[in-house]
Automatic annotation (TrEMBL):
<protein>
    <recommendedName>
        <fullName>Pirin</fullName>
    </recommendedName>
</protein>
<comment type="similarity">
    <text>Belongs to the pirin family.</text>
</comment>
<dbReference type="InterPro" id="IPR003829">
    <property type="entry name" value="Pirin_N_dom"/>
</dbReference>
<dbReference type="Pfam" id="PF02678">
    <property type="entry name" value="Pirin"/>
</dbReference>
<dbReference type="InterPro" id="IPR011051">
    <property type="entry name" value="RmlC_Cupin_sf"/>
</dbReference>
<dbReference type="InterPro" id="IPR014710">
    <property type="entry name" value="RmlC-like_jellyroll"/>
</dbReference>
<dbReference type="InterPro" id="IPR012093">
    <property type="entry name" value="Pirin"/>
</dbReference>
<dbReference type="Pfam" id="PF05726">
    <property type="entry name" value="Pirin_C"/>
</dbReference>
<feature type="domain" description="Pirin N-terminal">
    <location>
        <begin position="64"/>
        <end position="139"/>
    </location>
</feature>
<feature type="domain" description="Pirin C-terminal">
    <location>
        <begin position="208"/>
        <end position="308"/>
    </location>
</feature>
<dbReference type="InterPro" id="IPR008778">
    <property type="entry name" value="Pirin_C_dom"/>
</dbReference>
């Protein structure tokens, strides 16, 4: 059997991905304690407010002014999968839907024909650091699904399965199956028009947490599937005898099993895989279509309709500090989590 490694690359920002994915934005912000107004204690002096990606002091405000995050902005033609492993996200959108999620929760949003949303990072803790660890993955949609109605579904942390493997020396690997199939676990996208809702598309999104020196074998999948792993925590990772440094990605042959071994510091990985859509991709900021003419059309549509307008009092809308995790859907359905 040949070596399953295709290529090892250093990670850029945003992380490079393979079809059907567009990219992955990785945020690891060590925010200070909150100031009582959901913003950072000590202020934001010296930052390029409105466009702060500096990482100064270990964190950024991004497009937020008083609260870090991303005020209202449009999307069309693709999906976002937001994995909030640490910290919180306040969601609001042009359909009147809203939510607060985090600390292991995942939001899966199909933008489809167009939606505006805000993603703010409220700093609720006023007596301790507010650590945000977040992945936002952009998953493309095929041409037939570019204009489906927008929709989001929640994968609450308590409901996401974790599959455990113990190697011959007793070292544990824990795999959080956000999407895909592993052993008896079969999980597909909660959004009905998602590319990942069809098992034939072989989409998998896993978070893999390997104990120090643990060994784990990625099972084989399909030959026509693209597969990548991303080492975001740990000194290094042994992949079939090749040493992969921290903050590197490995493109793999999905049809072959792949042996992994963590270093003495352990390893945390993101796995992304899926059958390629194989269609032309035209991108313009938050819009992803198949041609530049379609980009012009959807941009004109947004200028005319604002994808339903903005029903919230602020483009950087946040929820009450004492509000627990919740999701209010566009149809009025309310999910409350403790």
């Amino acid at each position: 059997m040949s070596n399953p490694i295709i290529r090892i690359e250093a990670l850029q920002f945003p992380w490079q991905t393979q079809d059907p994915f567009l990219f992955c934005a990785y945020h690891n912000d060590k925010y200070p304690r909150g100031n009582g107004h959901l913003g950072p204690f000590g202020g934001t002096s010296g930052r390029n407010i409105g466009s702060d990606f500096s990482g100064k002091d270990g964190w950024s405000m991004y497009h937020g002014e008083s609260v870090p995050g991303f005020p209202a902005h449009p999307h069309a033609g693709f999906e976002t999968i937001t994995i909030a492993e640490k910290g919180l996200v306040d969601h609001s959108d042009s359909l009147g839907a809203a939510g607060r999620f985090g600390n292991g929760d995942v939001q899966w949003m199909t933008a489809g024909g167009g939606v505006q949303h805000a993603e703010m990072f409220p700093l609720l803790k006023e007596d301790a650091e507010n650590h945000l660890l977040l992945f936002q993955i952009w998953l493309n949609l095929p041409a037939k699904s570019k204009k489906v109605p927008p929709y989001f579904g929640m994968l609450w942390n308590e409901d996401i399965p974790i599959v455990e493997f113990t190697d011959s020396r007793g070292a544990l690997s824990r795999i959080k199956v956000i999407c895909g199939e592993l052993n008896e676990v079969k999980r597909y996208a909660p959004a009905p028009d998602s590319f990942a809702a069809n098992p034939e598309n072989d989409v998998a999104i896993w978070l893999i947490d390997m104990a120090p020196n643990a060994r784990f074998t990625l099972p084989a999948s399909r030959k026509d599937t693209n597969r990548s792993i991303y080492l975001y925590n740990g000194d290094s990772l042994d992949v079939e005898g090749a040493e992969v440094p921290a903050m590197h990605t490995v493109k793999l042959k999905a049809e072959q099993p792949t042996n992994l071994q963590a270093s003495a510091s352990g390893a945390k990985l993101l796995l992304l895989q899926g059958k390629p859509i194989g269609e032309p991709v035209a991108k313009y900021g938050p819009f992803v279509m198949n041609s530049h003419q379609e980009i012009q059309n959807v941009f004109a549509q947004f200028q005319q309709t604002e994808f339903g307008g903005w029903p919230w009092p602020s483009y950087a809308h946040t929820h009450a500090p004492d509000r627990d995790r919740f999701a209010l859907h566009a149809d009025g359905r309310l999910e409350e989590k403790g």
